[in-house]
Design goal:
This protein is mostly helical. The protein has 12 helices and no strands. The protein has one domain.
Length: about 300
């Protein structure tokens, strides 16, 4: 077993970003391993799933303690996702081998990341329109649609390691618009533990798990995701980090789908322009409490002096 320092560093960066923003680790880690560190797609997907099996409980324990988990939803999601996650791992490794498997995985990853980016954008829009209230005690579960989300999401996760924290949570937002954001996150995190376990088992049996890659990821990501989670629970702002991660996912997706360097560069440039415009609008709309406080103090002193 060889511990790779670059993979450890990637685990630190991605783990910190996941802990800080709550965005899916598979959507970030797998493209980094494939595109930047030269890990084969099969080993990247398999090893990332095994590493995620140890990372997911870190955030889940926090939500369980805060009672922000909808256990009836977890039950129906797990019923669908556990068998389909194992099946997804089997299908992707049984339908192709060698170079064909690598190409199929890259294509599947590219499609999954593209859908994940769309899901993240949709989640951001929905978050702005959602009420922060907690779901009522008589919260009604819709078994069949919830089961279908588990089935489809689990299958995608089993094939690509992408989808638990990005695709499934967006589907739950549409299905249960009255559910608070913290409960969606907590529910998704808890249900993803058996899902990732099933998909990781399938990849361990049919796939190409690399012990060195897995251990390297865990060395870097476990302490980093803890630090990121602690910061996100305090005063750290993640508003500026999410658009950057979304842009990185989009560029990774089009690269995995086979777009040439010129096209990738143009999309990256478009992301920079769009991100700069977003930050400019955000800065103009943000309040300036210090200036307002200074103005009020000045006005008050003026009135006092005038009287």
């Amino acid at each position: 077993m060889h511990v790779d320092g670059f993979i450890v560093l990637a685990g630190v960066i991605v783990g910190f970003a996941v802990g800080l923003t709550g965005m899916g680790g598979g959507a970030l880690m797998t493209p980094v391993l494939v595109l930047l560190l030269g890990v084969s797609p099969g080993a990247a997907v398999s090893s990332d799933l095994v590493a995620s099996l140890f990372m997911k409980p870190v955030g889940s324990i926090v939500h369980i303690r805060r009672q922000t988990v909808q256990w009836p939803l977890v039950t129906w999601l797990v019923v669908g996702s556990v068998p389909s996650g194992f099946l997804g791992a089997y299908v992707i490794n049984a339908t192709a081998t060698g170079a064909a498997l690598a190409n199929d995985l890259k294509l599947a990853l590219g499609i999954a990341l593209t859908v994940a980016v769309a899901g993240i954008v949709a989640k951001s829009v929905l978050d702005r329109r959602r009420s922060p209230t907690t779901a009522p005690a008589d919260f009604a579960v819709r078994p069949l649609p919830t089961l279908l989300i588990g089935l489809l999401g689990g299958f995608v996760v089993g094939m690509t390691s992408v989808g638990s924290g990005s695709l499934m949570i967006v589907a739950l937002m549409f299905l249960y618009p009255g559910l608070a954001g913290r409960e969606l996150v907590g529910t998704d995190l808890v249900q993803s533990i058996p899902l990732v376990g099933s998909a990781a088992l399938g990849q361990a049996i049919f796939g190409h798990v690399s012990l060195g890659v897995t251990v390297s990821l865990l060395i870097g990501s476990l302490p980093a995701i803890y630090v990121g989670s602690r910061l996100s629970a305090s005063t750290a702002s993640t508003g500026y980090l999410r658009p950057v991660i979304t842009a990185v996912l989009l560029v990774s997706a089009v690269k995995l789908l086979g777009l040439g360097n010129t096209g990738v560069a143009l999309i990256a440039l478009a992301c920079v322009v769009a991100g700069s415009a977003y930050l400019l609008v955000r800065r103009r709309r943000s309040p300036l409490p210090q200036l307002e406080g200074t103005t009020r103090a000045t006005s008050a002193s003026g009135r006092a002096g005038g009287s």
